[in-house]
Amino acid sequence: MWTRRVWLGLRASAGGRRGFPSKADPQGSRRVTAELIEHLERLALVDFGSQEAVARLEKAIAFANRLRAVDTDGVEPMESVLEDRCLYLRSDNVVEGNCAEELLQNSHHVVEEYFVAPPEKHMEITPFCLWTPPSKHH
Amino acid sequence: MLGRTLQEVSEALKQGLVTPTELCQRCLSLIKKTKILNAYITVSEEVALKQAEESEKRYKKGHSLGDLDGIPVAVKDNFSTAGIETTCASNMLKGYVPPYNATVVQKLLDQGALLMGKTNLDEFAMGSGSTDGIFGPVKNPWSYSKQYREKRKQKSHGESEDSHWLITGGSSGGSAAAVSAFTCFAALGSDTGGSTRNPAAHCGVVGLKPSYGLVSRHGLIPLVNSMDVPGILTRCVDDAAIVLGILAGHDPKDSTTIQDPVKPFTLPSLTDMSKLCIGIPKEYLTPELSSEVQSLWSKAANLFESEGAKVIEVSLPHTSYSIVCYHVLCTSEVASNMARFDGLEYGHRCDTDVSTEAMYAATRREGFNDVVRGRILSGNFFLLKENYENYFVKAQKVRRLIAHDFVNVFNSGVDVLLTPTTLSEAVPHTEFIREDNRTRSAQDDLFTQAVNMAGLPAVSVPMALSSQGLPIGLQFIGRAFCDQQLLTVAKWFEKQVQFPVIQLQELMDDCSSIFENEKLASVSLK
Predict the structure, then answer these.
(1) DSSP letter string over B250-272?
(2) Which terminus of chain B is more exposed, N or C, with fewer CB under 10 A?
């Protein structure tokens, strides 16, 4: 449950406001509930930070809802304008690399060739021994 | 010399009438004089002078690399430049120095271009004003032009000179201002929804968005992978064609570049207009369009017709949904692309070391501005499992309908579409900031973003000055990979309208000699 605690802590530091549900959307779409806000913040790892930001999301959703008016029956989704062409695949040979030092230079926290992430608080490292060394018999 | 076209200066360099070092120094001096515009985030003075030195050696030996050798250029700060800070005007990348050059940057350097610096933009290229970056807004050079100031004197008195400055448009505002103010001969911008064409129109320069797949995106910090394109800003269409010729072509590092062979080209002069068919999309005539832009659009259509071209009204039926569709797809791809910024491998990292998730969240809160965060959150909303079909996939389907609208029009015999680029001329900053970024983007991208969704080439060409003395540009849209044809039509149009040169003497103090017609009028262009 440490995750939840951390999240509430974070939001408290950002002002600690709760999200408000939006007024009922005339098109009956989802309201921006406090639950949704928390969910999005969790996924995006970006916090709303203010009531204005929540209002902006509501406007963005309302705007996007206009797409419902378009008849897309039988229409395939378009992922790329180059869908009729073959993607270029180069041959599987190593042509570059060996630049670990250059790349590590850009990080704030590096140990040897590792990027260092903060520790996970809930993982406590306790001495734990399954094996006891044989006693020294003569 | 700085007022010349790229072609003219290139000739002057080849004939030894000016040296790369002289050019470089003049541009650097001008950059300093026009600092008020805030067009540049980083001025790479040492790098540029060194490049100029090397270029000079080549010219002395008669081994110039080509048309761009010794030519000052600028690059938008969302292109990676090795050894030169690349910030995207964001705290997230402040201090970030890439270990490699974007392919398009490398191509410019390989041709001997002089990199003057990195230009200012909206944070992560999100915006239509170049007002929302951490280094402050970019000011439109036309705010200080004689043309604009004279008109203003007639209207208002006693207002502080600078308080009513105009925006450049965005998000490549820094690049547009840099070119418009003569500090370089060409600049790279990026174009996802109009970010090159919009500021080009507001700053009175040519803004080209090439076909998607023609120019490599490797090293362009991505916003929307399926729509992003490096853009080219220059003072005339021929110059844009020169730069495109150098940048276009397959890049093994960008698998979305097409493999068709591409060669540099020169633009022919159009003489027989009778074979040309210009389409005017009727849905682009919106109530928000200013009467001045509308009238210029009309005038342009009549111009083509009077010279023998066929000009017909066409329909792009899904136009009214285009901006909504763009909004959903853009925020969704942004949500994905921005996920890489977690503070671990590069970029900003917060001080807290509580846990990885807390570190990510705090880093991103500190690193991104409201606009970026807003788009990430919206995008994540549309990508939620329960929303994916109804929003993201729905938008992808609408995208196909929009792309198909264009295909239908081009299949019916239309060669090039003619539309406005922007709703009006550049507005004062004080007016622009009355609405938020998302609203403004939705308004200002109206004529430009459908082109990105369809992956077509488009170019904004300055046409005339408004009654306030400010530039108004019109947009030409071409068929996919028919960039050369598009530019040929644009070049003809440019020649017809003879858009006036910006008069910036007031801003330049003693630089006015730059704009006199020097004895180089005798430079022969082969």
Answers:
(1) -BTTBTTS--S------PPPP--
(2) C
Max mean pLDDT among A54-68, B150-164, B512-526 falls in A54-68
Residue written as tokens 């944070």?
Answer: B123
Please check the confidence at residue B482 and state whether its pLDDT lies above 80.
Answer: yes
Q: Name the amino acid, one letter, at B460.
A: S
pLDDT, tens only, B428-444 = 999 999 988 878 888 88
Is there a contact between B478 and B486 (Cβ–Cβ < 8 Å)? yes
Residues B46-78 pLDDT 10s: 999 999 999 999 999 999 999 999 999 999 999
Is there a contact between B364 and A46 if contact means CB atoms under 8 Å apart?
A: yes
- The pLDDT score that the predictor gives to residue A78 is 97
- B405 at interface of A, judged by CB pairs closer than 8 A: no
B397, A75 Cβ separation under 8 angstroms: yes
Q: Is A115 within 8 Å of B345 when comparing Cβ atoms?
A: yes
B290 is catalytic: no
Amino acid at B9: V
Structure tokens at B240: 């844009």
Interface membership of A99 toward B (CB under 8 Å): yes
Which SS3 state, helix, strand or coil, does residue B492 take? helix
Closest listed residue to residue B35, CA positions, set B232, B177, B222, B246? B177
CB atoms within 10 A of CB B24: 24
Q: pLDDT digits over B234-281, tens only?
A: 999 999 999 999 999 999 999 999 999 888 889 999 989 999 999 999
Q: State whether residue B114 is helix, strand or coil.
A: strand
What does the block give as tokens for B357?
């998730």
Please confirm, yes or no, whether B107 is among the known catalytic residues: no
Averaged pLDDT, groups of 10, chain A, 138 residues long = 34 38 43 90 91 93 96 96 89 89 92 87 55 60
- What is the structure's pLDDT at A11? 39
Rg (CA), chain B: 22
3-state helix, strand, coil in chain B (%, to 5): 45, 15, 40
Would you call B195 a catalytic residue per the annotation? yes
- The Cα–Cα gap between B47 and B114 comes to 8
Query: Does A121 contact B335 at a Cβ distance shorter than 8 Å?
Result: no
* In contact, B203 and B165? CB cutoff 8 Å: no
Please, which residues bridge with residue B74 across strands? B117, B187
Q: Check residue B37 and give left, alpha or beta (phi > 0: left; psi -120 to 50: alpha).
A: alpha
| CA closest to A83 among chain B residues | B256
Q: Is the dihedral of CA B413, B418, B421, B422 positive or negative?
A: negative
Residue B36: CB atoms within 10 A of its CB come to 13
ipTM of the complex: 0.88
3-state SS, B311-336, equals EEEECCCCHHHHHHHHHHHHHHHHHH
- What's the pLDDT at B509? 61
